[in-house]
Specification:
Pfam families: PK_Tyr_Ser-Thr. By secondary structure, this protein is α+β, with helices and mostly antiparallel strands. The chain has helices at 49-61, 92-97, 99-102, 106-125, 177-182, 187-202, 214-222, 235-244, 255-260; strands spanning 11-19, 24-30, 35-41, 70-74, 81-85, 90-91, 128-129, 138-140, 146-148, 155-156, 162-163, 184-185.
Amino acid sequence: MEPWERPREEFRLHKKLGEGHFGEVWEALWTTENKKVAIKTLKQADTKQDEFVKEVQALKSLHHPKLIQLLAMCSRGEPVYIVTELMRKGSLKSYLASAEGLMLTSAHLIYMGSQIAEGMAYLEDRNIVHRDLAARNILVGDDLVCKVADFGLARIIKDSVYTASRNTKIPVRWTAPEAAIHQKFSVKSDVWSFGVLLYEMMSRGKMPYEGKNNKEVLDLLSSGFRLPCPTRCPQNIYRIMMDCWAAEPSKRPSFHALHTHSWN
């Protein structure tokens, strides 16, 4: 038995936290460790088994304080469990809309954004493209600790640009034009997504391109349109967003530059 493979009897599901890309996400008790954990389950008879296994492979090899840590898995029988650390405040998307989230100042949000850039810089060093960076895939813990989660679409790319298959589901509102239109994903397309994530944060959870469908979003981007500066967003943070949204991918900053940037 691999060290992270555990018998499912060791886990007691307590509370459903939501629906993930593959199935349900639960808060659970790991009885032998007396520890609360998060468990992602794979829906019965789901065809996404290959993707689920890829997510586990990605998680197993990544160790950084700003990335969600894999603790164990139960892959024998169904449903399959992926066991990760539990982040008590849930997803950044839901946290931004909570009473506590609405009280956050720009300084708090900048602190959180810097942590996300730090986690992404670690992936950048390893040439790993996340491909689904958004507030829904950032988890929040105590003291505004933020960690990058959901490596479901992550690919380790040997070249600087990874071309996805045509039938890949793409979250268009968060995706760089070259990735959404030509399926060319790179670390720089993740940087574009980071800009949209900053927009979500600074607008306190507003949907990017609200009221537009995916085709309209693509048409807007092709014409050079960019999301406007959110109310109460400092101009220097909006400038960072605009840098992330440079039409030419090579002109976008690196995650290392974003993490070490003086955001004040």
